[in-house]
Prior knowledge:
Blueprint: H1 9-29, H2 33-58, H3 62-92
Amino acid sequence: MEAMLHITTLHYLVLGAALFLLGVIGVLTRRNVVIVLMSIELILNAVNLNLVAFSRMLGGLHGQIFAIFVITDAAAEAAVGLGILIAFFRNKETVNIDEVNLLKW
């Protein structure tokens, strides 16, 4: 008889931790603003995965509803971030994070 594979909350948490770690590494090591924005999205998706996993474990909908709010916040962050990035690229013709001093005093 075949052994059934049961996906537990621990599996979701390990996957969420791995995604979060990859996102943090991407934010800290990359110099391209587009990749940094994608890494932030990866971090937010890891948080959403953990919210939904705990919501499923506890049997409520609060975590899933909160995850929907995080998704809408991530969409707004991406839209505003890309808008600022396009304006910055038009002025400086680069997306290197080291040369972002346009908004400093």
